[in-house]
Amino acid sequence: METALSSLATILPLAADDSGFHAPSLADFFPPAVLFEGTPFEINRIMIVRFIATAALLIIIVLAAKRAKLVPGRGQVIIEMVMSFARKGIAEEILGERLGKKYAPVITTILFSVFFLNITGVVPFLNIAGTSVIGLPLIFALWVFALYLIDAVRALGVGGFLKGQLFPPGVPKFVYIVLTPVEFLQVFLLRPATLTIRLFANMMAGHLLLALCFSATSFLFFHAAGGLKVAGVVTLAGGFAFYLLEIFVAALQAYVFAILTAVYLQMAIEPEH
Amino acid sequence: MKGTTPVDITGNLAVIGYGLAAIGPGIGLGILFGKTIESMARQPEMSGQLRSTMFIGLAFIEVFGLLGLVTPFIFP
Questions:
Q1: List of residues 6+ apart from A157 with CB closer than 8 A
Q2: Which of B55, B59, B73 sits opposite A198 (nearest CB)?
Q3: Residue B66 contacts A where some CB pair is shorter than 8 Å
Q4: Range of the domain at B51
Q5: Using an 8 Å Cβ cutoff, are A229 and A221 in contact?
Q6: Which letter does DSSP use for residue A25 in this model?
Q7: Structure ipTM
Q8: Cβ–Cβ below 8 Å for A201 and B66
Q9: Is position B58 within any domain?
C-alpha cells in the first residue's frame, strides 16, 4: 500500500513533464482570442459558448411559443412546467400575489438564462459554463441590484427605503450602532457581490473538478505504468459521478439565483416583513 | 528513520487554508439539512415552504465556502 502510494506521488509529477498529464488550471478560463483581439469586443471560446447558449435558449423558447397548442406536446409541457414553477413556486410564494405577478417575468428570465448558460459546462464539446468567468454573473447581479434599488426607491422613496433597510424596526436603539453598518454593507455591497461569487465560483469549481477527473483518467489509462492503470477506473467513475452532480448544480444554481432575486426584491420593497 | 527518503513538500499554503475554510460551511450545511429533514418529518404538510427556505439558507451558507475558494485568486 505504502509503496503504491509513494510511487503514485513520484510518477504523477514526473509524468507531467513528458507524457502529458494536464492538470486543469485557471488558463482554461482565459482562452486565446478568436476574433477582434485587443478590442473591448474580443471574442474567445467562452464568448462563443455564451452565444451558443443564448441562441439555443432563444430558439427553444421561440419554437415553443410558436407551436403552443391548447393540448401541449411533450416539449411544451416541460417549458410550461418550468415557467409556472418560476411564477408560482418562486415569485408568488416569496413576493406574494401582487408583486409576484409583477416580477415573474424577471425571475423567469433569470431562471432560464442562468440555467442555459450553466448547463454548457456539461454539454460535450462546449465543456465550459458560460457563467464560469466573472463577467456574466456580475451583469446578472448588477441587474438584480439596480432592480431592487430603483423599485424600492420608487415604492418607498429614498428616505423610506433607507430607513427600512438600515434601521429595521423592533430593535433597541443602541443596537443600531452595530446593525446599521452591517445592513449598509449587506444592501449595497454583499448582496450583489455574493450573488456574483456564488454563481461563478460554483461553475469554476465544477469545471476544474470535471477536467481534473477526466484528464487524470486519460493519463492513467494511456500513460501510467502497469498497475496504476486500474486507478483510472476510479477516476473515470468519479468523473461520471461529478458529471451528474454538475447537471444538478447547474439547475440548483439557476434556482438559487432566481429565488434570491425574489428574496432581495421582497426585502427591499416590503422591509417590515 | 533509516530507509525512508525525506519528502519535499511543495505547494501552496492556500490549499490548507481552503481546507480550514470549508469546515464552517460543512458544519452549517449539516445543521441546515438535518434540521430541515427533522422539521419535514414532524410536519410533512409544511415541506414545500421548508424546502424553499432551506434553499435560501443553503445559498447563504454555500457562499462562505465559495469565498474561501476565490480568496487565493484575489490575494495571491
A1: none
A2: B59
A3: yes
A4: 15-74
A5: yes
A6: -
A7: 0.80
A8: yes
A9: yes
Structural domain tally of chain B?
1
Chain A closest CA to B58's CA: distance in Å? 9
Q: Is A126 helix (H, G, I), strand (E, B) or coil?
A: coil
Confidence band for A10, pLDDT divided at 50, 70 and 90: very low
Write down the mean pLDDT value for chain A: 86
* Segment 47-76 of chain A within 8 Å of chain B by CB: none
What's the whole-model pTM score?
0.85
For residues B9 and A272, the model is more confident at B9
Q: For the segment A12-45, what is each residue's pLDDT rounded down to a tens digit? A: 443 444 456 777 888 888 888 888 877 778 888 8
User: With an 8 Å Cβ cutoff, is B75 touching chain A?
Assistant: no
Helix axes A93-119, A229-269, angle to 10 degrees: 150
Give pLDDT, residue A20. Answer: 62
Long-range contacts of B6-10 (CB under 8 A, 24+ apart): B7/A9
**Does some domain include residue B47?**
yes
CA atoms within 13 Å, Cβ hemisphere of A52: 19
Among A111, A120, A105, which Cα is nearest to A140's? Answer: A111
Q: Are strands A33-35 and A43-44 parallel, antiparallel or unpaired?
A: antiparallel
Residue B27 is part of a domain; what is its CATH number?
1.20.20.10
The answer to whether B42 and A246 are in contact (CB under 8 A) is: no
The length of chain B, given as a count of residues: 76
Residue A54 has pLDDT above 90, yes or no: yes
